[in-house]
Write a sequence for this structure.
């Protein structure tokens, strides 16, 4: 079962956060089919329906499962262009930039980074002109932004909703 108080431990050579093999298998199956019934999920992990229901509920309550949603293909809804936008921000105004990103509808993902740039935005648009307008008219126009570098994505080779500790191979040998 799930033990929220348990420290990280090793499972199949990987650190986990209080998750046993059954919980990890549940998460793996939900990643591939978030609409699976509790009964079918129980069959796949070889435990009772009540146990699966309780485990999913516990992981949801603990915030391990943060929600359920549909996975939409951006190209099939007309968002044919994807770009990575690397932003360098004035350090004293980082908080203001961060708040501004939350208001930018085109941003699918934003992360704070190390190295040459401070943040990376993944943006989607109907066309390349939309990316240009967003980068120059929205991001670069913010007073706290020192520089912007954008890169158009040609092909999204791997796109997973999440990784699990058991997905990471043990390369210590």
């Amino acid at each position: 079962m799930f033990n929220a108080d348990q420290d990280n431990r090793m499972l199949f050579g990987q650190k986990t956060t209080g998750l046993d093999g059954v919980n990890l298998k549940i998460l793996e199956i939900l990643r591939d089919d978030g609409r699976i019934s509790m009964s079918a999920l129980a069959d796949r992990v070889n435990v009772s329906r009540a146990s699966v229901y309780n485990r999913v509920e516990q992981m949801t309550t603990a915030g391990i499962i943060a929600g359920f949603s549909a996975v939409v293909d951006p190209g099939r809804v007309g968002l044919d262009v994807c770009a990575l936008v690397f932003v360098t921000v004035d350090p004293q105004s980082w908080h203001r930039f961060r708040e501004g990103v939350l208001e930018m509808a085109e941003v699918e993902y934003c992360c704070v980074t190390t190295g040459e740039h401070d943040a990376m935005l993944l943006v989607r648009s109907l066309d390349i002109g939309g990316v240009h307008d967003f980068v120059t008219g929205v991001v670069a126009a913010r007073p706290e932004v020192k520089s912007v570098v954008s890169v158009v994505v040609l092909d999204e080779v791997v796109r997973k909703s999440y990784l699990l500790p058991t997905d990471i191979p043990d390369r210590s040998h």
